[in-house]
Design a protein that fits this description.
Chains A, B: It catalyses: 1-(5-phospho-beta-D-ribosyl)-ATP + H2O = 1-(5-phospho-beta-D-ribosyl)-5'-AMP + diphosphate + H(+); 1-(5-phospho-beta-D-ribosyl)-5'-AMP + H2O = 1-(5-phospho-beta-D-ribosyl)-5-[(5-phospho-beta-D-ribosylamino)methylideneamino]imidazole-4-carboxamide. 2 copies of one chain form a homodimer. By secondary structure, chain A is mainly β. The first copy, chain A, has one domain: Ubiquitin-like (UB roll). Helix content of chain A is 11%, strand content 36%. Chain A is built from 2 helices and 8 strands, in the order ββαββββββα. In chain A, the strands form 3 sheets. Chain A has a 4-stranded mixed β-sheet with strand order 2-1-6-5, covered by helices on one side. The longest helix of chain A is centred in the first third of the chain and has 10 residues. The first copy, chain A, starts with 13 loop residues before the first strand and ends with a helix. The interface between A and B is large, with 36 and 36 residues.
């Protein structure tokens, strides 16, 4: 049995994926993979997601240069969520978010409002030319 | 505008949630919340999820005693994923997984196979009586 068959794909043929930075353990982003994306991620050693908005494989960093080198691929107890341990390349500190921030999770709930607390490390206009 | 209205709920009225342990930064588990679950989580300061299998609110630890104390609630750039910073109570080290393990992500891909690499800390039969 192929290891890809052990994954419980959802009704859209996708699995949710959490990308965690290896050295800081920061949660960087959340995205989806289909079977081909997960196979490609394992083969390349770089994160390849399924872009639901674009309806195609998305080799993270293909435009921005912010490639995610993958050190480890984990699967949860129900076999329906994947956790990647990655190094975020192309900038120091790593930029995983399309807003130019380190992590996509930059909004914190404070006094019943979402507050952006993390800095933009690079202008998105200069990331996506 | 209510902060709950800022969340982009999916077609089932849910949002994916990642629980990360505050002091180790380990990713413990992944689950879903509906609007009421997220409101309850913020109000109690303890994780309350929506159980899709049981079709009801699920106050994490209600059976096992493995409550998740919530320190911080974050929202991602697209406002459609939540990240909790938690302390996993009831056992040291914390047990988040129903298998009695620390984290739900205990299977690692090695040589094209998923290998369980993390120990069972407590027999599930003694957790769920």
């Amino acid at each position: 049995m192929n290891w890809l068959d052990n994954v419980k794909w959802d009704r859209d043929g996708l699995v949710p994926v959490i990308a965690q930075e290896a050295h800081t353990k920061d949660v960087l982003m959340f995205a989806f993979m289909n079977r081909e994306a997960l196979a490609e991620t394992a083969r390349r050693g770089e994160a390849v997601y399924w872009s639901r908005s674009r309806g195609r494989l998305w080799h993270k960093g293909e435009e921005s240069g912010h490639i995610q080198k993958v050190h480890e691929i984990r699967l949860d107890c129900d076999a329906d969520v994947v956790l990647l341990s990655v190094t975020q390349l192309g900038h120091e500190p790593g930029i995983a978010c399309h807003t130019g921030r380190h992590s996509c999770f930059f909004q914190v709930l404070r006094d019943d409002a979402w507050v952006s607390v993390d800095p933009v490390l690079k202008d998105p206009a200069s990331i996506y030319k």
